[in-house]
TrEMBL record:
This is Uncharacterized protein. It comes from Anopheles atroparvus (European mosquito). InterPro entries: PEBP-like_sf. Gene3D superfamilies: PEBP-like (3.90.280.10). It comes from the Eukaryota.
């Protein structure tokens, strides 16, 4: 029992280290713990591949974080994840990542898109807006300008994240708002406890 507990703790520490350092792992077959919202970044996990069909733009680990014209993602991209576990279900999250200092409670996400119960098979052929159960409709990126009160003059950062659904199908609550989305609180409200694990994969870009 002590050996198993030590092993699990070591994996959790590794996941946290990867998220904090921005190191991209090549495979993460088993999810053992979730990372709090204030410690995740879009280029820190197993890389997704996002294909913007209209523009032909491909976002991958080679260009994660680069500046992209927001029109490239005017409609939902097609998402691929080669390390999805067979017969597992996943939740897809797309957020704008903001400076938490603009929020009284430190929340830093603006919710762009949220889809639950996406099957592993969808990521093999390319997950589209038709897959899974849409919790919040897709909202195209709209980079903040200098006229916005919380704009800092830097490119606006966006991230796609995938979470593993540990116990299969979930019935997630509808978020109260897109503005300063409480990711940790939303995950905590899903029954049963610890139903989501991750992120297990991500990809991101900047826009201005």
């Amino acid at each position: 029992m002590a050996t198993m507990a030590s092993s699990t703790h070591a994996v959790e520490l590794l996941v946290a280290f990867l998220a904090l350092t921005g190191t991209t792992p090549t495979v993460w077959a088993t999810c053992t713990a979730s990372i709090s919202a204030d410690r995740i970044t879009a280029c820190a996990f197993n890389p997704l591949l996002a294909l913007a069909e209209r523009s032909g733009w491909v976002l991958s680990k080679e260009n994660c974080g680069e500046i992209v014209g927001p029109e490239a993602f005017e409609v939902p991209p097609v998402l691929y994840f080669e390390h999805a576990e067979p017969d597992h279900l996943y939740t897809v999250l797309f957020v704008e990542e903001r400076d938490p200092s603009g929020s009284p409670d430190g929340r830093r996400f603006y919710l762009q898109w949220l889809v639950a119960n996406v099957p592993e098979s969808a990521f093999v052929s390319g997950m589209t807006y038709m897959d899974g159960d849409t919790v919040m409709d897709y909202l195209s990126p709209a980079p903040r300008s200098a006229d916005d009160g919380d704009a800092d003059g830097q490119p606006t950062r966006y991230g796609f994240y995938i979470f593993e659904q540990v116990y299969g199908t979930i019935y997630p609550p509808m978020p109260n708002t897109r503005e300063y989305f409480d990711l940790d609180g939303w995950i905590g409200a899903i029954y049963p406890e610890a139903a989501l694990c991750g992120p297990v994969a991500s990809i991101g870009f900047s826009a201005q």
